[in-house]
Each structure stands twice: as C-alpha cells, then as structure tokens.
Amino acid sequence: MENRSRPFATVVPTPEGVKKRKRLEVPPQSPQLPPGCRVLRVSGTAELHEFADRASFGILVSSEKKTMDEAITSVSRRIDYILQCLRQHGVKDKDIQKYDLAIREEETQQYSMQTELNVTFSDFTKLDEVDRLLLDKVDDNVKVHSARYYHSNECLSLFRRRVCAAATENATQKARDMCQVMGQTLGPPLLVVEEELEEKLHGVNDEFVHRYDNITSIPAILAVSRVSITFLIRDRPGRQL
C-alpha cells in the first residue's frame, strides 16, 4: 500500500545561540481519519556537536621605499614567494584573496606599498604547515595573523539537518517502544514539528566543554533539537480491548 505520509524537514539557518521554532511540512493531503481513530504524540531530542570546517588567516606584506616602483618590486618579490609556498601545499587560487594599497607619505616623502593575502583552508594540517613555514622564512616586513576558524554555510546546513533527523529518529523509536508495551501497531506519522533548535558556541557553555573535551582548540557548535511527532496507531490483529 502506498504510504501517503511524507515527513520532510527544512531547517532555516539562524544566528548562533538563538532558539528557533520551525514547523515541518505537513502532508498536503493527509488521509481522512475514520471516526474513533487514535493517535499517539511523542517528542524526541538529540544533541550533536560539530567542529569548524574552515579557517582563514591574513598575510600582510609591506615595504617603504623612495620610489613607488621600488616599493612595488620589494612587495611583489615577497608575495611571489608566499604564493609559491601556498601552492606547494595544495592551496588553490580560488582560496586566496589579494588586496593592494599604495600610499605616498607626505612627511617622509616615501612611498609605501602594502599587499594583504587572505587565505582559506579546509585542511587544518596544511594550515599549520604553512603557518610554521612562513614564520620561519619571512622577514619583519611580513606579518602573519592568527587563524580564524569558522563553520561554512554548507557545514551548518548539513549539521542542522543531521541533528533534526536524529531527534526525529529518537521520537520514532520512542513511539515504537510505547506501542510495543501497549500492544498496538504504530501507523504512519500525521504531523512532524521541530519545536526547538538551540545552538551554542564551544566555550560558551562550561558543561559542553567538560563533556566534549578535545585536545584541539578548533571551535565547535553544540546543537540541541526537539521534535514532536503525531502518529496514527492501530490495534494489532486479534487483540481484544
């Protein structure tokens, strides 16, 4: 028999640490319930955490010379070396953003050239390798800023779907167990509602740090989802009430 009940979850991104309520899709043509039908409503929760999947850091190269050409040449030589190091470690050009700034200092009559590279990594091992290499090789005219870790939109979207699905699975298993105890048969879901999704940054909640202690300092997000589901229930064949 075709199952006309199709629960489907759509999770909309919200700012971190903000609770949200999102109603999931209700089948547009729910079956007409016969008189005296019985339903079972259960709730389920799930708690997951996800570490950041992206990191970026800035590299600032500056030079001050008597002419602009000299300043540009000095910066370009260092930038070429840095770009070569990045590519040797598998960094793609699309993950490198470059910004140039040329300034003429009126007081000193010097020309200043600054170029900043903003580099994005998804492989944190490569990030550490590049960071150590640049700190060892570059001179005082090159400044390497500390890495900033964050979650990409794709990572957050997948993570929110995972925690919602886990809460839905827990609620469904609870309904199965209850029907088993009561001698009933669990029918199809009639309504699925994600009632709450709460997110907290790693480090904000001390309890989270204690439970998910990790040797890495990469930040993470803790998410707790609560889902309620209304099921149709039926008597088992041969059961007498």
TrEMBL record:
Region of interest: Disordered: 1-32
Q: List the GO biological process terms.
A: immune response; positive regulation of canonical NF-kappaB signal transduction
**Is Nucleus among the key words of this record?**
yes
The keyword Nucleotide-binding appears for this protein: no
Extract the signal peptide range.
Answer: none
Top-level taxon of origin: Eukaryota
Any Pfam family matching the protein:
SIMPL
Q: Which UniProt keywords apply?
A: Cytoplasm, Nucleus
Where is the protein situated, by its record's location annotation? Cytoplasm; Nucleus
In the record, the note on similarity to other proteins reads:
Belongs to the IRAK1BP1 family.
Protein's recorded name: Uncharacterized protein
Source organism per entry reads Knipowitschia caucasica
